[in-house]
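Table S2 (text version). Query chain:
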Amino acid sequence: MKNFQAWAAKKIAKKIRVKVIGKPQISQLRRPQTSAGSYIAMRTAYGKQNNWPLDSTNTDIDHYDRLPDTTYFLSFRKRFLRRGRLIAGLRLTKIKDFEDSLSLEMWSNAEEKQKFVGHLLIHQQDVMTLKRAAKNGRVWDLTRLVTAMALQSRRSRRTKRLTYVALLMALGAAFKTSGSESYWIFTCNPEIKRFLDKLGIQYHLIAQGLISKQDSGESYFAWISAQAAYNQLKNGQPAVAEVVQRGYSR
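Corresponding structure-token output:
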């Protein structure tokens, strides 16, 4: 978002609509013409591209999608009298036990699992903080953050700006839903890490390493305080603050 003026961000944000879907219905997930279905289709395409484990129908639907504490945050490019094109989406799931985290489970068969376990031992204080918070209903697992841009081989400056605004608005809505006392845990790739770094979000990195031999780089296991991250964005660059606030106030 460097050199991205607030007026430009505001102009783009007017073209984005954030839809929040709680307790997604499985019947809708398999219908691409629905909002939730378009998100599943995007996830599936990205999953095939990155060798994710898919279900028996070759679709990216897992047990999180069946839980009542799961919420989708989807940013669409507005179109007159139509749903619009999905630009970005993410999923938050409230978990009651740190060990039940899908972000943690992703490392269960990791190429560098021993390295990952070693990092967990080093950061035991972070792990204990998350375990206590989970038992108090304050931990949300951030998973399946995907964008339409990630499926494109060529990315124009316009596409990048549209994607960043869409993600920021989705994050703003997610901050509001999870609440001021919540913690988010997540496993991300280098591209998402760079995005967070550019925004100046101060996350707590617990571990990193290679999950699959096919991966282009290391993955990162981390957590953030949702309220602290929201405050950092709201009080940071004017362009970022404008967009996040629009998502939060949707």
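Notes on Table S2: The longest strand covers residues 82-95. DSSP finds ten helices and seven strands in the chain.
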